[in-house]
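Q: Study each token:
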Amino acid sequence: MLSDQTPTLTRVPDRKNATATQAGVLRPDQLAQHVELQRLPCSRSLEPWVENYWLLQWDLPSGTCHRSSTLPHPACTLSVEHGRTREGVVEPVVVTGVLTRRFDVELAESGWVFGVKFRPGGYAAFTGTVARTLRDVPVAEPTPFRVDTVDALAELGGHLEPDQCRTVVDAVLAPYAREVDPEYDAVLDIIAAMLTDRTLIRVAQVEQRCGVGTRRLQRLFERYVGATPKWVLGRYRIHDALSELDNGYSGPLADLAARYGWFDQAHFTREFTELVGVPPGTYQL
């Protein structure tokens, strides 16, 4: 039975938890009419690298489909996908890198997906890879993980309860946990500042606030995040504006643009339209 409410994210209280917005899914109320989405916490031992788990499942009538559109987050995902899967998925266990454009998936027939959403920089720190190599790669093989890990993940499916899936994923990923890299820890602090401090609208302000130089900041983001600091900061402010619109904001768009750092409404409209696909005034309706 599908949920009739937009799901909320369960969080485990922790200093490092503020590393992702809850925005992203466009028109979440419409998505909830077609699919069931749950977000689940990971084990505490994985919290330094993993933001949360999520479970998506659907069973649509024959001949119908629903396009799910998601704005990019600066995070990689490890997912297990069964049923009517997205283009490019051959084996059930795949990795999705940081995508810098809107991510669209046509949902049809029936399907089941369990995802591990890593924190920004978390996948690279957890696996020892370079995030830049996965930028704009929607489907990649899970090569950093052992064969037995991938096989165990592939056995997950709709025949298991969500908590059973969470327990399995906790167990198979636990052996990869290591001491937190100080460089990655610095990335988390920078990301948290970008996310929570709405007065940060330029990268130079981030550098001053976090006490980090331009070249080091760029190097950290290329190594761990896979996207530039400017892109991440801009996406977080777009997420802020989108959340306001999803929550019913009906005021002047010029005020909304100014609140989140755009110097004029035209610039805000241009960036919003490029990413979301429609102008903010149209999305507001």
